[in-house]
C-alpha cells in the first residue's frame, strides 16, 4: 500500500512539474498509441484464429473422409503416413479405447490418455498442435471412430505458423508506426490547440509588466453580424457558431480587459476630477488660515468674516471628501441590509427636506398600492438617495416653488418646476463632478446625482432623468 501511495505521489509530482503542453501531448499520444496497439493486438488474434480455423476445417473434412473410407475396417494402427500442406491424404491412424488392443507396429501420431477417453466416448473431440516426426509443426484432430475407437488425422501447419509470424511482424511494424505517429500528432495537437492559451498568457504577462490594459488577444474572424462593441472587445455575436472553448476563453479575457481598461480610466478620471475640485477650496482654506494667522493685523469684522469663510470651506471640503468615500463604495454591506418600508422612509425624508428648505413646498403623494411596499436595502443609504434628489430639486426650484414627490408600486418620482435640464446636459447629469452651466453658480460639488445613481443600482433599481411635461426636471427611480 505504501509503495502504491509513493508511486501516486511521484506521478502527481511529475504532472505538476510538467507544463500543460507536455501533459496534453503525452495524454493525446498515449490515447492514440493505446488505440493503435489494441487494434494491432486484436487484428493479430483474429488473423491467427482464421488461419488455424481453416486448418481445423481441413482436418475435420479429412477425418470424415477417413471414416467413410474405412467404415468397416477395425484394424487399429496407422492408415496413411503422408502429412501434406492443407491437403489429403493426411497422416491418419485408428486408436482403440483399450491399450491392450494396440497393434504391434508403433503409432505415427502421439497417443495419450485423452485419446483413449475420446475412443471410449468419455471426452469430446479436440485439436492439438504438435511436432511431426520429421520436425515440422503439425496440427492434429482426435475424434470418434465407431464404438470403442478414435481416429486421429494430422497435417503440417507450416503455412499457418508462417502466416502467424508474418502477421505478427507486420502488425508490430504497423503498431510502432502508429505509436510514432501518435507522438507526432499529440505534439501537433498540443501545440496548435494551446496556441491561443499561449497568446493569452503572453498578453497577461505583457499587461502585468507594462500595466497597460489596452492589449487584446487576437481572435479569428467572427460572423458578419458582430456589433461595433463586440468588435471592440473581441466578442462574437450570438449567432456565431464557430466559437470553440479556447476562443470563448480568449473572448472572455478580452471582455475582462475591456472592463478593466474602463475601470482604470474611470479611476483616473475620478482622481483627476477630485484633485481639480479640491484645489479651489484648499486654496481658499490656506488663504483664510494665513489671514487668521495674522489676526492681530485684522479688525473684528475681518476676523469674523475670515473665520466664517474658513468654517464654510471646511464644511464643503468635508462634504466633498465624504461624498468621494461614498462613491468609492461599490456594494452595500450585507449585515446592514433589511426590508425597508418605503412609504415611511419617503415621508421622513420629505419632512427633513421641508425643514432644510423652508422656502420650497414639498408635496408627497403615496398611491394606495405602495402603502406596504418594501425594498431590501440599507435604510440610511436609501435615505441618502432620496435626500440627494430632493436637495437637487430644491436647489433648482424658484422661491416658493413646488417639488412633487410620488411613490407607486413601480416608481418613485421627484419633479421640480425649475429651469429643467437642457438636451446637451441630459446625458451627463449623473456623471461625477459634472455641473451644468446653470448650476455652476449654485453650491455643490456635482457628486450628489452620481451618488444617487450608484446607490440605486446597488439596490437593484435604476435612476433616470428626463424633461418634465410643462417644464422642470423629472427624476424617476424604477423599483424592482
Describe, in plain words, how this protein is organized in 3D:
- The longest helix has 50 residues, at 20-69.
- This protein has helices at residues 2-17, 20-69, 113-119, 158-193, 195-210, 228-233, 245-293, 300-327, 342-356, 379-395, 448-458; strands at residues 77-80, 91-96, 126-131, 137-144, 149-156, 338-341, 361-366, 374-377, 402-407, 411-415, 462-467, 473-478.
- It folds into three domains: 16-211, no CATH class; 213-218 and 242-332, Helix Hairpins (Orthogonal Bundle); 335-478, Heat Shock Protein 90.
- With 480 residues, the chain is an alpha+beta fold.
- The strands form three sheets. A five-stranded antiparallel sheet has the order 1-2-5-4-3. It has a five-stranded mixed sheet with strand order 7-9-10-12-11. The protein has a two-stranded antiparallel ribbon with strand order 6-8.
- It is rod-shaped, with a radius of gyration of 49 Å.
- Helix 9 crosses helix 10 (379-395).
- Residues 224-241 have low confidence and may be disordered.
- Residues 273-480 form the Histidine kinase domain.
List its salient traits.
480 residues; alpha+beta; Helix Hairpins; Heat Shock Protein 90; 3 domains; 12 strands; 52% helix; phosphorelay sensor kinase activity; EC 2.7.13.3
Amino acid at each position: 500500500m505504501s509503495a502504491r501511495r509513493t508511486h501516486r505521489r511521484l506521478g502527481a509530482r511529475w504532472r505538476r512539474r510538467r507544463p500543460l503542453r507536455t501533459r496534453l501531448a503525452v495524454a493525446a499520444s498515449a490515447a492514440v498509441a493505446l488505440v493503435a496497439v489494441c487494434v494491432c493486438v486484436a487484428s493479430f488474434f483474429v488473423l491467427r484464429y482464421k488461419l488455424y480455423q481453416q486448418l481445423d476445417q481441413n482436418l475435420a473434412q479429412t477425418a470424415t473422409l477417413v471414416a467413410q473410407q474405412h467404415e468397416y475396417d477395425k484394424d487399429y494402427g496407422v492408415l496413411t503416413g503422408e502429412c501434406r500442406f492443407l491437403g489429403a491424404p493426411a497422416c491418419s491412424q485408428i486408436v482403440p479405447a483399450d491399450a491392450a488392443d494396440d497393434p504391434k507396429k508403433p503409432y505415427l501420431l502421439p497417443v495419450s490418455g485423452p485419446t483413449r477417453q475420446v475412443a471410449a466416448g468419455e471426452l469430446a473431440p479436440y485439436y492439438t498442435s504438435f511436432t511431426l516426426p520429421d520436425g515440422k509443426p503439425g496440427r492434429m484432430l482426435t475424434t470418434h471412430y465407431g464404438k470403442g475407437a478414435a481416429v486421429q488425422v494430422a497435417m503440417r501447419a507450416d503455412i499457418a505458423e508462417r502466416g502467424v509470424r508474418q502477421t505478427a511482424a507486420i502488425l508490430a511494424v504497423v503498431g510502432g508506426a502508429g505509436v510514432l505517429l501518435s507522438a507526432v500528432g499529440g505534439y501537433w495537437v498540443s501545440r496548435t490547440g494551446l496556441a491561443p492559451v499561449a497568446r493569452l498568457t503572453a498578453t497577461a504577462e505583457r499587461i502585468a509588466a507594462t500595466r497597460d490594459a489596452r492589449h487584446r488577444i487576437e481572435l479569428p474572424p467572427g460572423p458578419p453580424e458582430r456589433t461595433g462593441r463586440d468588435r471592440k472587445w473581441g466578442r462574437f455575436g450570438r449567432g456565431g457558431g464557430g466559437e470553440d472553448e479556447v476562443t470563448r476563453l480568449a473572448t472572455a479575457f478580452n471582455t475582462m480587459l475591456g472592463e478593466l481598461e474602463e475601470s482604470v480610466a474611470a479611476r483616473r478620471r475620478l482622481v483627476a476630477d477630485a484633485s481639480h475640485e479640491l484645489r479651489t477650496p484648499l486654496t481658499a482654506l490656506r488663504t483664510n488660515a494665513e489671514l487668521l494667522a495674522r489676526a492681530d493685523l485684522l479688525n473684528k469684522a475681518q476676523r469674523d468674516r475670515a473665520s466664517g469663510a474658513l468654517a464654510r470651506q471646511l464644511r464643503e471640503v468635508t462634504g466633498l471628501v465624504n461624498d468621494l468615500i461614498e462613491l468609492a463604495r461599490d456594494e452595500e454591506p450585507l449585515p446592514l441590509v433589511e426590508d425597508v418600508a418605503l412609504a415611511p422612509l419617503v415621508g421622513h425624508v420629505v419632512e427633513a427636506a421641508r425643514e432644510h428648505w423652508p422656502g420650497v413646498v414639498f408635496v408627497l403623494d403615496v398611491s394606495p398600492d405602495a402603502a406596504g411596499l418594501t425594498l431590501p436595502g440599507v435604510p440610511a443609504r436609501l435615505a441618502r438617495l432620496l435626500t440627494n434628489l430632493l436637495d437637487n430639486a430644491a436647489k433648482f426650484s424658484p422661491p416658493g416653488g413646488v417639488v412633487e414627490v410620488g411613490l407607486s408600486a413601480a416608481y418613485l418620482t421627484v419633479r421640480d418646476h425649475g429651469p429643467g435640464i437642457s438636451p446637451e446636459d441630459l446625458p451627463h447629469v449623473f456623471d461625477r463632478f459634472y455641473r451644468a452651466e446653470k448650476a455652476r453658480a449654485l453650491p455643490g460639488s456635482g457628486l450628489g446625482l452620481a451618488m444617487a445613481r450608484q446607490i440605486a443600482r446597488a439596490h437593484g433599481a435604476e435612476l433616470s432623468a428626463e424633461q418634465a411635461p410643462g417644464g422642470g426636471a423629472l427624476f424617476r427611480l424604477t423599483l424592482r
